Amino acid sequence: MNIRIIPRLDIKGPNLVKGIRLEGLRVLGKPEYFARYYYENGADELIYMDAVASLYGRNSLLEIVERTARETFIPLCVGGGLRSVDDIRVVLRAGADKVSINTAAIRRPELIREASRAFGSSTIVIGIEAFHHADGRYEPYINYGRDRTGLDAVEWAIRAVEMGAGEILLTSINQEGTGKGFDIQLIRRIAEAVPVPVIAHGGAGKPSDIYDAIVDGRADAVSIASILHYQCLEQVRSDEKEFTAEGNIDFLRRGGTFSKLQPTALPVIKEYITSQGVACRHVL
């Protein structure tokens, strides 16, 4: 099996943003610039996630998706604010190949069955944003990690797959954006519980963390953000005047870097993973 390495781009308004544990979002640039750079450097797929869509009851990614679909020719998964089969249809028509649903699926699980019947299970990805409580429980949260559900993450993953989900996008809220490595226990529990691919997300700080998620966590794919974005930032850095709509641009204004991880590029990651005996798609 060839492991997929998938850049994830979280969007607020027209801008690419990044935070820590899904909070403190800072503007990094225009998502299309990053998407094009990742495509040219060997990304296997891309994930676009609207960070505030479920909270505000909107999805503002259509124009960004359309522009990206015209310039990149790899699978594109889009999530955030998708509440119905009609919402999903609109995003797919805009150029997405798959959709990720979280909040709406937990609020009305039947949506998973309806969507998989309408578009095929391979099109429907269930996003699980799991918080690790002190007592050891993993609880899925909704609204971009803001609200509790009272569910068990493993049980919810099993139910979602039984209802037609073709893939799981699994985020550790505790690790996300920290650069401290993945929650291997969480990934492995979900991967061993469901018969569909699991995409691990949240915590990559260096290439060996990605290897650990694949080998020890048994992930089928890894979605990464900070480790790529902060390296890519110097390649696509834009004038701060472009970012007037939404988000905190203080980081861009300072020309900042993020010292808690080892920013790196996709070819470097794939070379490392391959050198450790793990096959990757699209090795440059």
Task: Walk me through what this model shows.
With about 280 residues, the chain is α/β, with parallel strands linked by helices. The protein has one domain: TIM Barrel. About 35% of the residues lie in helices and about 25% in strands. The chain contains 12 helices and 12 strands. Strands 1-4-5-6-7-10-11-12 form an 8-stranded parallel beta barrel, surrounded by 7 helices. Helix 9 (about 205-215) links the parallel strand 11 (about 200) and strand 12 (about 220-225). Helix 1 runs parallel beside helix 3 (about 60-70) and helix 9 packs across helix 12. The longest helix is centred in the C-terminal third of the chain and has 11 residues, at about 225-235. The two termini are about 20 Å apart. The model has no long low-confidence stretch (mean pLDDT about 90).
Give a summary of the structure in a few sentences.
The chain has helices at residues 31-40, 53-56, 62-71, 85-94, 103-107, 110-119, 153-162, 184-193, 207-215, 226-236, 250-254, 266-275; strands at 4-12, 15-20, 23-29, 46-50, 76-79, 98-101, 124-132, 138-142, 147-148, 167-172, 198-201, 221-224. By secondary structure, the chain is of the alpha/beta class.
